[in-house]
Specification:
Layout (H helix, E strand, L loop, with lengths): L4 H13 L6 H14 L3 H18 L2 H15 L3 H12 L3 H8 L29 E5 L4 H8 L3 H5 L4 E5 L4 H7 L4 E4 L5 H6 L5 E5 L3 H7 L17 H12 L2 H4 L7
Parallel strand pairs: 1-2, 1-4, 2-3
Helix pairs in contact: 1-2, 1-3, 2-3, 3-4, 4-5, 5-6
C-alpha cells in the first residue's frame, strides 16, 4: 500500500512527541515528503505547519516564518498569523510581534477570549470610560511577566481589577495592595465574562504590551531587556527568589 501525505505527517507528529528518541532531521524529512505528497490544501497546510514548528524548535525562526506565511496564504486562518508572531518575538521584533500576537484572540484554540470580541477593551479603541477587567490567560510566568506593565493602566487613568491564577493570588495581592485582585480558574473565565456589566471591558493580561504600544506609552523597540529578553543569570536569580516564597515552595509549581 503506497504511503500518503497523512502517513508521513502523522509519523512526524509522533516522532516530535517522542522527545529524545528521534533526531529532528527525521521529523523534517517526513514533513517535506508530506508536503510533496499532499493531494489537498488540508494535507499541505498540516505538513507545512508541522515543519514550521520543528524549525522554530531548532531556532530557525526565519524559515518558520516563511512556512507560517504560506499556511496563512492557503488557509486564510488567522491562527497562523499568531504562530508567526511567536517567531517575531523570538527574533526581538517586538513591535511586529506584539501586534500579530493579538491574532490569538481569533481562535478558541489559542485563547479563551475568542468568542467575546464585543467585550474586549481593544475593540473600543481603549476607551477610558470603561472599567477594565484584566484576566490571566496563559502560564504563571506569563502572568508575572504581564504584571510589570499594569502601572501603565494607572498612567492612562484607568480603573481596573485583576484576576490571576489561584496559586498567584496571595503574591499578587501583596504586590498590588491598592487594587482589586481575585483568583479564577480558567474553566470559570467564560462565566466571569458573561457576568460583566455594561461599563466593564476585558483586557487579557497578555494584551498589555499591545495596549501600551497603541497608546504610545512605551517604545517596545527600545526595551527588549525590560520585555523579557534577559540573561540566564537574571532568570536564575528570579527563579531562586520566587521559589523561596511560601506560595511556591510549598507546592509543586515550576519556576524557571
Amino acid at each position: 500500500e503506497p504511503r500518503t501525505a497523512s502517513f508521513y505527517n502523522n509519523r512526524a507528529c509522533i516522532r516530535t512527541k517522542l522527545i529524545g528518541y528521534f533526531p529532528s532531521c527525521l521529523v523534517v524529512k517526513d514533513c517535506k515528503i508530506a508536503i510533496n505528497l499532499a493531494s489537498n490544501d488540508f494535507e499541505y497546510v498540516a505538513a507545512m505547519r508541522n515543519l514550521a514548528n520543528e524549525y522554530k524548535k531548532l531556532g530557525n525562526h526565519w524559515a518558520a516564518q516563511r512556512l507560517f506565511d504560506k499556511c496563512y496564504t492557503v488557509s486564510k486562518d488567522k491562527i497562523y498569523l499568531f504562530f508567526r508572531s511567536m517567531t517575531e518575538l523570538q527574533l526581538s521584533n517586538l513591535d511586529a510581534g506584539w501586534d500579530a500576537y493579538e491574532y490569538r484572540l481569533s481562535s478558541l484554540t489559542t485563547s479563551v477570549f475568542a468568542q467575546c470580541e464585543s467585550k474586549l477593551w481593544s475593540n473600543s479603541n481603549f476607551d477610558t470610560k470603561y472599567n477594565v477587567v484584566c484576566i490571566w490567560e496563559q502560564g504563571l510566568g506569563d502572568t508575572l511577566f504581564s504584571l510589570r506593565l499594569l502601572y501603565l493602566l494607572t498612567l492612562y487613568g484607568i480603573n481596573f481589577s485583576i484576576y490571576v491564577q489561584p496559586p498567584l493570588l496571595n503574591l499578587v495581592k501583596e504586590l498590588l495592595v491598592e487594587h482589586d485582585v481575585k483568583a479564577v480558574d480558567l474553566a470559570d473565565v467564560p462565566n466571569l465574562i458573561n457576568q460583566l456589566q455594561d461599563n466593564q471591558k476585558i483586557l487579557p493580561l497578555m494584551s498589555l504590551s499591545y495596549f501600551a504600544k497603541c497608546k504610545g506609552l512605551i517604545n517596545l523597540s527600545s526595551c527588549s531587556e525590560f520585555h523579557g529578553l534577559s540573561s540566564d543569570i537574571r532568570v536564575q536569580k528570579w527563579a531562586n527568589w520566587l521559589t523561596s516564597l511560601p506560595e511556591f515552595s510549598e507546592t509543586s509549581l515550576k519556576i524557571g
